[in-house]
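Problem: given the chain below (206 residues), write out its structure.
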Amino acid sequence: MPRLFLASDSTCQHYEKDQAPQAGWGQFLGNYLDDCEVYNHAIGGRSSRTFIEEGRLIEIEKELQEGDYLLIQMGHNDSTKEKPERYTEAYQDYKGYLKQYLAVARANQATPILLTPVARLHYVSGEFLADFGDYCNAMKEVGEEEDCIVIDLMRHSIAHLTAVGIDEATNYYMISANVDDYTHFTEKGANEIAKIIARELQLILE
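Solution.
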């Protein structure tokens, strides 16, 4: 039975019932992957750097075994220049930290999978816009340099939002719960993102 370990931020993390309707895609992913175990280590506010600095990657490493998968979705918090304690420069620091995740996975005979940052609700002049461009590009460069699978979650999530339209897409984000938040997901949104990721993973796991 494949085991999936998730290293990510608040868009992926598990939220308790009293935090509803906020949710992360990681808490729904297992619903769409038969015979997979999901271990969600995602936590809000962490960048590729602080996740490592706080020892969270080490905790995952303690559990990793041959045949496991390590999914890494970072970038939202790496991009926050106004918070230097977690900021990373895209083409130097960020790439370097991502490669540490890959190295840990491979040292334990696990398979790393990179996921570009998921879309925010950024809608201008009838179009959903992709954010975190440098971080998406830098992650793809790491994929090429390190021969690592990359799921372009930004592209897939933007395509999905475009398909469902702005009215439905708004329900995916906490702005629909009267919170000034265009980044974090409602249960509905997290569930839909989980479906997208599961679909891509099924192609990899087959």
